[in-house]
């Protein structure tokens, strides 16, 4: 069990901890879903998150739209452009989460580039994230060596700091990410940008083996996953599979349809099949 202590010194088992403990107890592969907040708009994003939770997603990653999403492929880049055009901001995303948090059981992780967080201010971001009921934060371009200010502030509010690992991450940095992070580690299954692929990269298995050799911390693997067989394959090596671009494409295809939420639920239930 992975514990952290809030400012009053009490040990906390977060929603993320509880979710991964349940997955291991049930010997089940978790499903982490990613959506870009504000696509097609913030109100519908809230509806989508509620439907993802209803469909059985084990953890909800909420992407904050950013003008320069360098780690993302065309599908998420276009979603980001739509969200920014619709007026989505970090503050707006947190307010949206706050409005629906009481209706969602799954953990919610903010997935952001560092710039929006630093621009808002770390202390203000943590204050708003705490009020919104955010469970974890992953700032994908903020390495462990430079994350002390954000990490300490989040830990003080009992919010998990999640670090990103890639196939090129060294054993030393895996140990550092595990020591400084909490909740789970997010491994990207291949080098490059986000986007759907037909098969799971062999580098996913290799990364998982290297992580397992260094830490018992839960591991979620993503990048390119889109089918039930991908989720099953990831489950051989990791605690959870992360599906992003494929789900974002479903939203893009049906964003203005009256059946958007139905399509989202059908896709997630298919993945879990």
What can you see in these coordinates?
The two termini are 28 Å apart. This protein is of the alpha/beta class and 273 residues long. α2 (42-55) links the parallel β3 and β4. It is 47% helix and 15% strand. It has twelve helices and eleven strands. It has a single domain (25-272), classed as TIM Barrel. The protein is globular. 47% of the residues are buried.
Features:
single chain; 273 residues; TIM Barrel; disordered N terminus; nine-stranded parallel beta sheet
Order of helices and strands: EEHEHEHHEHHEHEEHEHEHEHH
The CATH topology is TIM Barrel
Q: How much helix is in the residues?
A: 40-55%
Low-pLDDT regions: 1-11, 192-196
What share of the residues does DSSP label as strand, in percent? 15-25%
**Mean of pLDDT:** 91
Please provide the count of β strands: 11
Number of domains: 1
**CATH architecture descriptor name:** Alpha-Beta Barrel
| Number of contiguous helices | 12
Radius of gyration from the alpha-carbon trace, in angstroms: 17 Å
Shape: globular
Give the biggest sheet. Answer: 9 strands, parallel
Strand order of the largest sheet: 7-6-5-4-3-11-10-9-8
CATH class: Alpha Beta
Q: What is the structural class?
A: alpha/beta
- The N- to C-terminal Cα distance equals 28 Å
Please, what is the CATH homologous superfamily?
Answer: Aldolase class I
Topology of this protein?
Blueprint (H helix, E strand, L loop, with lengths): L3 E2 L5 E2 L2 H12 L3 E7 L5 H14 L3 E5 L10 H12 L4 H11 L7 E5 L1 H7 L1 H11 L3 E4 L8 H9 L3 E2 L2 E2 L5 H10 L4 E4 L13 H13 L4 E4 L5 H7 L5 E4 L1 H10 L5 H13 L1
């Amino acid at each position: 069990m992975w514990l952290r202590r809030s400012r009053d010194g009490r040990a906390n088992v977060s929603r993320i901890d509880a979710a991964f403990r349940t997955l291991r107890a049930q010997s089940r592969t978790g499903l982490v879903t990613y959506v870009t907040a504000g696509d097609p708009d913030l109100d519908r994003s809230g509806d989508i998150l509620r439907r993802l939770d209803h469909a059985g997603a084990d953890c909800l990653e909420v992407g904050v739209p950013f003008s320069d999403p360098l780690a993302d492929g065309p599908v998420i880049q276009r979603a980001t452009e739509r969200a920014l055009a619709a007026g989505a901001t970090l503050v707006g995303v947190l307010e949206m989460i706050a409005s629906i948090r009481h209706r969602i059981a799954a953990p919610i992780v903010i997935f952001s580039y560092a710039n929006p967080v630093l621009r808002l201010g770390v202390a203000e971001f943590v204050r708003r994230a705490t009020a919104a009921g955010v469970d974890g934060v992953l700032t994908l371009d903020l390495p462990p060596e430079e994350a002390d200010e954000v990490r300490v502030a989040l830990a003080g509010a009992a919010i998990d700091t999640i670090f990103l690992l890639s196939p090129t991450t060294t054993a030393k940095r895996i140990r550092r990410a595990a020591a400084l992070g909490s909740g789970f580690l997010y491994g990207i299954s291949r080098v490059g940008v986000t986007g759907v692929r037909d098969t799971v990269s062999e580098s996913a298995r290799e990364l998982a083996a290297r992580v397992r050799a260094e830490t018992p911390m839960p591991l979620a693997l993503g990048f390119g996953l889109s089918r039930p067989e991908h989720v099953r394959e990831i489950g051989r090596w990791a605690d959870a599979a992360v599906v992003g671009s494929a789900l974002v494409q479903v939203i893009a295809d049906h964003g203005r349809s009256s059946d958007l939420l139905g399509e989202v639920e059908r896709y997630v239930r298919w993945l879990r099949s």
